[in-house]
């Protein structure tokens, strides 16, 4: 069919093409972007040092980029409690753009030329720390008050930790010449933090002490000694401390060597922590040590004031105290989602009794567990032969979630069969399976 004159099948219009574009048209740049877009850009810039440079472009850019830079730079601050560190943290704490981002304070030390390493003076250098006649720190004192003022300005900080750098005992140099310590010892650091919490000006929800002796390189590294001269436990009876400590939710104690009485002290700390959810208990003690058992016994008590969601027990010597471990797990089984037993030493047939417990006591909400280097021993004549829990060639599917051993590389000194890790929704069933495997399968103790 042809179109008659005047009929139009369709219409098409085309805008005229401009002869030229204006040469002075503004080009997009950082200055023209709104603060929201600049904030998104800043969140993608890596590393934080690049942000530090970009924030110097101009005031408009600096405002958006400074927020992201400060957030990453000051989320965790470290201090060795020295005069130089006090000056630095004082500047950070009095700058509202910086202080608001501090979430964790780590008391640690990094080697500097100002410190005589051989003499162990590493913490609190170039500040005057008052001590009483027994050698203990005196509270209150001006130096501690200055630090308290700084810590209190970090109003969003609720997490604190102390890390052992190496031997900080400081009573003798490498030539064996004794001297009076001028800096702070590890127990001083702990007492300093306890006094800080007792002020009522600092809130704590997470506290970690990492004093593992493998960090020190010294055989005589300072222990966690609650009976050391000058150590004062008055904070345990301070209502302000109890109020602050009552907010704690996570407690990680990697204590290295713990002397007698240390376990009971930790029990008293635990009794003041009704909101505690996560506990790491890492104690290196002698064969006759009972400090870990004392703590586990309190965890299994009906009077325990909290319900744990996560429990890690490491390096504990529990020969003769296996029931304390069982009762602690039973006490918290309704809430326990994560359990780790690492390098624990059980008594005769301790592994069998542990799997008997797992078989009869279910952990209904368990979703993650680790068994690594679990040992017991058996009587062989008049001697005790140590045995190691192993799971050789165990690769089994459990309702679609892999139950597996975590092999280590061939160069490791650790046997590749002695670490077993599970993550999934049926941890209790996995433990029951392991119990059957241990009693009736190919796994066992060697």
Folded structure, characterized:
The chain has 446 residues and is an alpha/beta fold. It has three domains: 43 residues; 199 residues, no CATH class; 145 residues, no CATH class. It contains 13 helices and 16 strands. The strands form two sheets. Strands 1-2-3-4-5-6-7-8-10-15-14-13 form a twelve-stranded mixed sheet, covered by helices on one side. The longest helix is centred in the first third of the chain and has 15 residues. The chain starts with 34 loop residues before the first helix and ends with a strand. About 10% of the residues have low confidence.
Summed over residues and divided by their number, the pLDDT gives a mean of 79
H-E string:
HHHEHHEHEHEHEHEHEHEEHEEEEEEHE
Uncertain runs: 113-120, 167-181, 395-416
Silhouette: globular
Determine the N-to-C terminus distance: 96 Å
Strand order of the largest sheet: 1-2-3-4-5-6-7-8-10-15-14-13
Number of strands: 16
Structural class: alpha/beta
Rg over CA atoms: 30 Å
Count of runs of 4 or more consecutive helical residues: 13
> What percentage of amino acids are in beta strands?
15-25%
**How many discrete domains?**
3
* Helix coverage percent: 25-40%
| Biggest sheet details | 12 strands, mixed
Region (Disordered): 1-28
Biased composition (Polar residues): 1-16
Summarize the structure.
InterPro entries: LRR_dom_sf. The chain is of the alpha/beta class.
Topology:
Layout: H1 35-44, H2 48-54, H3 59-73, E1 76-79, H4 83-93, H5 96-99, E2 104-107, H6 142-153, E3 159-163, H7 186-198, E4 206-210, H8 239-245, E5 250-257, H9 262-270, E6 278-284, H10 291-299, E7 310-314, H11 322-331, E8 338-342, E9 345-348, H12 350-360, E10 368-372, E11 375-380, E12 383-390, E13 395-398, E14 401-405, E15 419-423, H13 427-440, E16 444-445
Parallel strand pairs: 1-2, 2-3, 3-4, 4-5, 5-6, 6-7, 7-8, 8-10, 9-11
Antiparallel strand pairs: 10-15, 11-12, 12-16, 13-14, 14-15
């Amino acid at each position: 069919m042809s179109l008659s004159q005047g009929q139009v099948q369709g219409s098409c219009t085309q805008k005229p093409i401009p002869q030229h574009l204006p040469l002075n048209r503004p080009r997009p740049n950082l200055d023209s972007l709104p603060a929201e877009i600049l904030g998104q850009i800043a969140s993608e810039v890596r590393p934080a040092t690049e942000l530090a440079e970009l924030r110097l472009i101009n005031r408009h850019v600096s405002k958006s980029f400074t927020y992201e830079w400060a957030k990453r730079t000051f989320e965790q601050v470290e201090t060795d409690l020295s005069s130089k560190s006090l000056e630095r943290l004082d500047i950070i704490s009095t700058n509202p753009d910086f202080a608001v981002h501090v979430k964790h304070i780590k008391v640690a030390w990094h080697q500097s030329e100002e410190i005589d390493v051989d003499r162990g003076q590493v913490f609190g250098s170039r500040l005057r720390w008052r001590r009483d006649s027994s050698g203990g720190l005196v509270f209150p004192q001006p130096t501690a008050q200055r630090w308290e003022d700084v810590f209190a300005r970090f109003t969003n900080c609720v997490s604190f930790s102390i890390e052992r750098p190496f031997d900080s005992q400081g009573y003798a140099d490498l030539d064996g010449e004794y001297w009076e310590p001028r800096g702070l010892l590890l127990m001083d650091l702990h007492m300093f933090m306890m006094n800080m919490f007792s002020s009522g000006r600092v809130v704590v929800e997470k506290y970690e002490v990492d004093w593992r002796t493998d960090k020190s390189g010294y055989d005589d590294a300072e222990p966690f000694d609650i009976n050391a001269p000058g150590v004062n436990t008055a904070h345990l009876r301070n209502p302000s401390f109890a109020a602050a400590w009552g907010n704690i939710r996570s407690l990680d104690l990697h204590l290295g060597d713990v002397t007698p009485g240390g376990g009971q002290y930790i029990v008293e700390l635990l009794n003041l922590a009704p909101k505690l959810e996560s506990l790491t208990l890492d104690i290196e003690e002698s064969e006759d040590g009972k400090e870990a058992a004392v703590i586990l016994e309190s965890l299994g008590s009906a009077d325990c004031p909290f319900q744990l969601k996560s429990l890690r027990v490491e390096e504990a010597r529990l020969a003769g105290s296996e029931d304390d471990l069982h009762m602690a797990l039973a006490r918290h089984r309704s809430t326990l989602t994560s359990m780790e037993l690492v390098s624990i030493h059980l008594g005769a047939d301790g592994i069998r009794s542990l799997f008997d417990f797992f078989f009869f006591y279910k952990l209904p909400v368990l979703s993650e567990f680790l068994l690594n280097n679990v040992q017991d021993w058996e009587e062989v004549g008049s001697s005790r032969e140590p045995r190691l829990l192993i799971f050789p060639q165990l690769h089994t599917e459990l309702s679609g979630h892999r139950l597996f051993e975590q092999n280590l590389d061939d160069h490791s000194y650790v046997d590749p069969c002695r670490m077993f890790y599970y993550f999934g929704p049926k941890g209790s069933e996995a433990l029951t399976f392991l119990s059957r495997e241990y009693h009736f399968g190919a796994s066992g103790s060697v």
